Amino acid sequence: MTGLIMGIEVRRSAIIGITLVLLVAGLGLTATGTDLFAGRWTQWAFTGRAALVLLIPGALAGGAWLGRRDRRHRVNELFSTAPRPRWQRLAPLAVGFALALTVGYLLMLLPGVALVAPIAGYFPVGALPTVAVGVPALIAAGWLGMAAGRAVPRIVTAPVLAVVGFVVTGVLPQVVTSMSYNDYFEKVRPEPASMLLNPVTIDGVDEFQVMPVGVSALQTGWLVAVAVTGFLLLAAASRRVLALAVLPGLLAGAAVVPLLPTDGYSGAAQIDATATELVCDTDGPPVCVRKVHAALLPDVVAPARQTLRLMAEKLPNPPNRAVQSAEVENWALPVDAPPSVRNPADDLVFDRPFFDRTGRADLQAGYFAGGWEHDLLSAGWRQACGEIGTWYRIGAVAEEAAAAWLTDQPPTPRGWLDDAAVAEANEVYQELIALPEAEQQRRMGAAREAALDCRMDDAAALITGEQAP
């Protein structure tokens, strides 16, 4: 009987319309950034969590619209005379709304599954708990919205709640995060542990990281308690019950915060050792990518081997294999980030190419000027130094000249490289090729040794001719 009543409530209320609006909004948000998660389960999970920045305000507003239904139809006094407890009367509507929100959230995630499952090389266990946190988050928002709509049954309640929800889950965390950085965008203090009470993750984590299951469980427990508070507020029939209704959320928050790690999501995330394992193509000089990026291997083998061949022909100390870096690329690294692992001289260590919208490699896009294949040419003169995630470089002019020297092609304008930098790089290149071949190799080999030793200024000076080898 209860199921029948709930079905009637869902069909005859605005629940289906609200859920469809949220579903369209979530699909629209994720569809604009499929390249951010295609082929990777962890990024898919955090994309679903990022969509909560729209879904939670929408659930609050939708709940407020449902909560004012009795007042809108002028049946408050009629229902107040019924002997049936208020919570029994409201439960079918609240549970129906919760189920609809859950189904809508899962439907929003399904297209992403189709982009990840066929090509993902690795399934991290922590991805499911990470994305599942969105379910209690939406239920809590929906029930809090219903309670607010019942308490303040005005037409402006829904839009006001939507704005408040967006500020609390989207704007306020960004303000708190920005306060952890100095004017040079260096992290100088950790973010409070309470940041993890917010289920929305705008920045997510690096592809080599995973959110511990324990953190997701603590977030889920907190959100379930908030949902209980929302339902109690909705069903409260007296001031005493109303006062007690806030206790589950408050007590859960007080219990959970001391157990959460500090420094927000960047501090909670852990390196996933399995994701960083190497997957190699050995039908020639070895070319390896990390397991989480195994789908990229067929696309990077040919250009990586071409670069290895060029270096073997021209450098006295060439690398003999190409390996994708395992450096974390998350800009929001913790204050106490561990030191980088130095790249060995035998490896040409490269950053992965960008993903396109289907989860394949986009070799035309690059982290720097000229696309990924051009970045690969200058990768031999880079090194991971200092804190994890910090790559040291020899400068745009020196890198352009080094790439030109490998390919025997003068520098050309590319990407953000302006004409002045191209002209300077071309001048360095012309000076290099004017030297005897043995001298060129000696100088560029010495520059590579200096770069691998993190003496980037010396490496750049050797290439540009400002320092004798």
Tell me what you see in this structure:
It is built from 20 helices and ten strands. It is mainly α. The chain is elongated. The protein has two domains: 269 residues, no CATH class; 187 residues, no CATH class. The longest helix has 31 residues. α2 runs parallel beside α7, α4 packs antiparallel against α10 and α11 packs antiparallel against α13. The strands form four sheets. It has a four-stranded mixed sheet, with helices on one face. A two-stranded antiparallel sheet has the order 1-2.
Brief rundown of the structure:
Keywords: Membrane, Transmembrane, Transmembrane helix. With 469 residues, the chain is mostly helical.
Describe the structure using short key phrases.
single chain; about 475 residues; mainly alpha; four-stranded mixed sheet; two-stranded antiparallel ribbon; 20 helices; about 55% helix; about 5% strand; elongated; transmembrane helix; membrane; transmembrane
Largest sheet: 4 strands, mixed
Physical arrangement of strands within the biggest beta sheet:
3-4-5-6
Please write the string of helix (H) and strand (E) elements. HHHHHHHHHHEHHHHEEEHEEEEHEEHHHH
Tally of individual domains: 2
Number of distinct helices: 20
Distance between the termini: 87 Å
Stretches where pLDDT is under 50 for at least 5 consecutive residues are: none
Helix content: 55-70%
Mass-distribution shape: elongated
Radius of gyration: 28 Å
